[in-house]
Amino acid sequence: MLQYIIRRLLYAAPLLFSVNILTFVLFFVVNSPDDMARMQLGQKHVTQQAIDNWKQQHGYHLPMLYNGEQSGVKTLTDTIFYRKSIGLLGFNFGISDSGRNIGADIKQRMWPSLALAVPSLIVGLWVNISVALLMVLFRNTYLEFSSIVACVVLMSISSLFYIIGGQFLIGKLLKWVPISGYDSGFSAIKFMILPVIIGVFSGIGSGARWYRTLFLEEVEKDYVRTARAKGLTETQVLFKHVLQNTLIPILTGVVVVLPLLFMGSLIMESFFSIPGLGSYTIDAINRQDFAIVRSMVFLGSALYILGLLLTDISYTLVDPRVRLS
User: Fold this and answer.
1) Where in the chain do CATH 1.10.3720.10 domains reside?
2) Which of 2, 108, 179, 245 matches a 20 to 30 Å C-alpha distance to 84?
């Protein structure tokens, strides 16, 4: 088990470094520091002196990879790549273009994102699996057909409709919960109820259909027929055998998503005025704060790699044979 984890970690390290290189290319080669300065200062009537001053203030005046004006180690350390990209490998995000500590902002804003994402994941997973099991239990009936039609309809509707409709119906007409906002501590619960409900409801269509497909593949296998022949009821077959044998694909979907919960939901947080990492990224894009956007892109990629690593490890817990691969 330990050797398997070490081997996966060794695979992840060069992948993370490659992501860092790609992020650097996208933000400093494709979009040069001069372009950043012009977008910040305005495209029209911007003098070269103003551009140089902006680059000097934000540390973008250095050479990209090699500083020929320095000697020794400083030829590599006094560069944009070292100062702006190498630190990301240690999750040192530095200072934003507006002068804020990005690491401190992330630590502060990750909690609202998790407060929204974790309940949505847990409740959504339970609802989707339950609906899918009911569809399989009543397969080849009008109930299954109606459920499939309902799932297709739910999938066809934009998530913005659920957000705006939920805010209008539940927040404005019924006035059960606030339409938007956020508060600290347990007072935040009342602000989380509506976005969690909308997040779960909008995902039922795709989630239930996905799990239904997994369960239908299992109910036709030989071990299920054997279980029925032993006298087990259909409910016992589904919960004791079918559900257990679909854990690997379920874990694939869940574990990969776990690190990304940290990043928050861009649309949901913006519409509900939740000060999480999703709205943090949107605000940075609107302000053209390239340091924050670059940090969030790298962080999202690193968390996705972590999710893949956790998925591989979780496979070994469900099926020990995976360790041998």
Assistant:
1) 109-324
2) 108
- Mean pLDDT score, 271-279: 88
> Is the model's pLDDT at 167 over the cut of 60?
yes
Residues 102-137 as b/e (b if ≥16 CB within 10 A, e otherwise) read beebbeebbebbebbbebbbeebbebbbebbbbbbb
Torsion-angle region of 94 (φ positive above 0: left; ψ -120 to 50: alpha; else: beta):
left
Kindly report each contact of residues 125-129 with a partner whose C-beta sits within 8 Å and lies 24 or more positions away, as own/partner: 125/207, 125/254, 127/200, 127/204, 127/207, 128/203, 128/204, 128/207, 128/208, 128/210, 128/211, 129/211, 129/243, 129/250
Backbone angles phi, psi at 84, to 5 degrees: -105, -20
- Nearest-10 crossing angle of helices 247-260, 189-219: 150
In CATH, what class is 109-324? Answer: mainly alpha
Give CA–CA dist 291/104, Å, rounded.
Answer: 14
- Could you tell me the pLDDT band of residue 131, with boundaries at 50, 70 and 90? very high
Task: Tell me the CA end-to-end span of the chain in Å, nearest whole number.
Answer: 12
Averaged pLDDT, 265-277: 85
Residue 11's nearest CA partner among 241, 324, 308, 266 is 308
The whole-number pLDDT of residue 325 equals 54
Whether the CB-CB separation of 16 and 302 falls below 8 Å is answered with yes
Question: Which residues on adjacent β-strands are paired with residue 101?
Answer: 95
Torsion 155-156-159-163 (CA) sign: negative
User: Using an 8 Å Cβ cutoff, are 121 and 52 in contact?
Assistant: no
User: Tokens 């300065």 — which residue?
Assistant: 37
Q: What is the pLDDT of residue 288?
A: 81
At residue 86, the 3 state secondary structure works out as helix
